[in-house]
Design goal:
Strand order of the largest sheet: 1-11-8-7-5-6
Bound molecules: guanine
Radius of gyration: 19 Å
Number of helices: 12
Shape: globular
Number of strands: 11
Strand content: 5-15%
Oligomer: single chain
CATH topology of the largest domain: Rossmann fold
CATH superfamily of the largest domain: NAD(P)-binding Rossmann-like Domain
């Protein structure tokens, strides 16, 4: 029987471990979150970030410029946050509106306050294995594996997806942990064959239930980073079948969340797997808190 990797339990462990570190600081760590516009999913994520800060006794500040903000105006906000001593971490929620130059905004965040690990300096630090803030979702996956006692060294890890936020840093962290790493993407010639070789399969493509039993080696560890909301009944029926618990959940709530992996196949074939929701998701915020506390520790000594 496959074991569920419980992200909520690991999140609670990580947050509990932060409390004494926060208590030791000369002032509370401060996180500024910039949310441009009103994308509903982003609003939910940012709400959870702010709430978690409050639960830990950290200070958070939410800035919500409207969707028509210019790149220069957003740069001015970032520069002001860079200059404020009581702000230890700055997070600009992605994605930004199309007219905003995302790279210029990420470049403007002081690398010391870059709790997402998206600044080119920190991307470079990750690449050469120097300590620096690591992107939250992939570092959460590493914590999940480590705390479950799942060995990574010498294993074949296949990462499906090559985004700057998840796929690329995930591959780099697995490589530093001595896995043999394959990165797959939309142009990969035979995706199923590549995935079948994985001892550790990571789904980070943003396509609902795209990875099925055809992609899964029995006994592999399956890490599902996807969070896809299905709001058409026909899609839920096509993926899970009439009479399934997912269709029942859809009929009750009008939508369901589905990862990048088919959850029934992952549950049946894996040794360990992460459900959606409740697997990788909770770790992202936990690691953001870790990065913010670490930034505060570095800045307050
Ligand atoms: N959007 C989705 N995930 C993330 C994340 O980890 N950080 C930021 N800033 N935006 C995101």
């Amino acid at each position: 029987m496959a074991q569920i990797l419980d992200g909520k339990r690991v999140r609670d462990e990580i947050l509990e471990e932060l409390k004494p570190r926060i208590a030791q600081l000369s002032r509370k760590p401060g996180l500024a979150v910039v949310l441009v516009g009103n994308d509903p999913a982003s609003e939910v994520y940012v709400g959870s970030k702010v709430k978690t800060c409050a639960e830990l006794g950290m200070v958070s500040e939410k800035l919500t410029p409207s969707a028509d903000i210019s790149t220069d105006e957003l740069l001015a906000i970032v520069q002001e946050l860079n200059a404020r001593p009581e702000i230890d971490g700055i997070l600009v929620q992605m994605p930004l509106p199309k007219h905003v130059d995302t790279q210029r905004v990420l470049d403007a965040i002081s690398p010391e306050k870059d709790v997402d690990g998206f600044h080119p300096t920190n991307v470079g630090n990750l690449s050469i294995g120097r300590p620096s803030p690591r992107p939250c979702t992939p570092s959460g996956v590493m914590e999940l594996l480590r705390r479950a006692g799942i060995p990574v060294a010498g294993k074949h890890a296949v990462v499906v997806g090559r985004s700057d936020i998840v796929g690329k840093p995930m591959a780099m962290l697995l490589l530093h942990a001595h896995a043999t790493v394959t990165v797959c993407h939309s142009r990969t010639a035979d995706l199923a064959a590549e995935c079948q070789r994985a001892d550790i399969l990571v789904g980070a493509i943003g396509r609902p239930a795209m990875l099925t039993r055809a992609h899964m080696k029995p006994g592999a560890v399956m890490i599902d980073v996807g969070i896809n909301r299905l709001d058409k009944r026909e899609d839920v029926v096509r993926i899970f079948g009439e009479g399934s618990d997912k269709v029942a959940a859809f009929d009750k709530r009008g939508s369901v969340l589905v990862g990048d992996m088919h959850p029934y196949d992952a549950a049946e074939l894996s040794s360990h797997w992460t459900p959606v929701p409740g697997g990788v998701g909770p770790l992202t915020i936990a690691m953001l808190m870790v990065n913010t506390v670490e930034a505060a520790e570095r800045r307050q000594v």
